[in-house]
Amino acid sequence: MVRKETLTKLKNYIEELKTIKVEQVASPSKFLTIEPAIYHLNNGKTMKRELLKKQAKDGSAAIILPVTNENKTVLVVEPRLGSTRTVAVGLPAGYIEPGEEPLNAAKRELAEETGYVCGTYRLLSKYYQDPGISKAYNYAYLGLDAEHIKTQSLDPEEFIRFLKCDYEEALELVELGYIEDLQAQFVLEKAKQYLLKR
User: What is the DSSP string of the chain?
Assistant: First the structure.
């Protein structure tokens, strides 16, 4: 059962970070671009499709489930404007920079978003985000022996709170509808084989 203090803290973070007003702007996006193209198939047919790029890159990302020596997981709470709540509870994650190894991206994003560093890392899975519109490929990691060693280092428009809870509580937060992000749910599920044995 999720502890009352965990739920209270989580609800306060969600309230703090939710959107209260939206102003439409007409300026072109500096983040997203759409590349239309005609794809010629080996069977002689063609398909006109559009691919999405993020910051002129394919949008590949690393996601990590950090777990401390006390078997506490570290979740992040941050604005996710496409969601109904406009705030999502999930796992530390971020884009892989050109030339950066996926594991190094996971380590960097974890440290930037939470100040945590892990002692060991295990690749859980690799997968496409949405191959119908993007070449983005994700790498999911489990980080063990996580320690909080520094302060967050966020970008100016990045607003992230982090929350420690038991792994079982994180699984329950999925069932309670707090963790709605499919990637976070997938990584939490993939980690079961390692974490439920500890």
Answer: ---HHHHHHHHHHHHHHS--------SPPSSEEEEEEEEEPTTS-EEEEEEEEETTB---EEEEEEEETTSEEEEEEEE-TTSSSSEEEE--EEEPPTT--HHHHHHHHHHHHHSEE-SEEEEEEEEES-TTT---EEEEEEEEEEEE-S-----TT---EEEEEEHHHHHHHHHTTS---HHHHHHHHHTHHHHTT-
Lowest mean pLDDT among 29-38, 41-50, 157-166, 183-192: 29-38
Contact 56, 22 (CB under 8 A): no
Residue environment code for 130-165, b if the CB has 16+ CB neighbours within 10 A, otherwise e: eeeebebbbbbbbbbebeeeeeeeeeeeeebbbbbb
pLDDT per residue as tens digits for the range 148-157: 999 999 999 9
Averaged pLDDT for residues 106-123: 98
Instruction: Say whether pTM exceeds 0.85.
Output: yes
**Residue 103 pLDDT > 90, yes or no?**
yes
Instruction: Tell me the residue length of the chain.
Output: 198
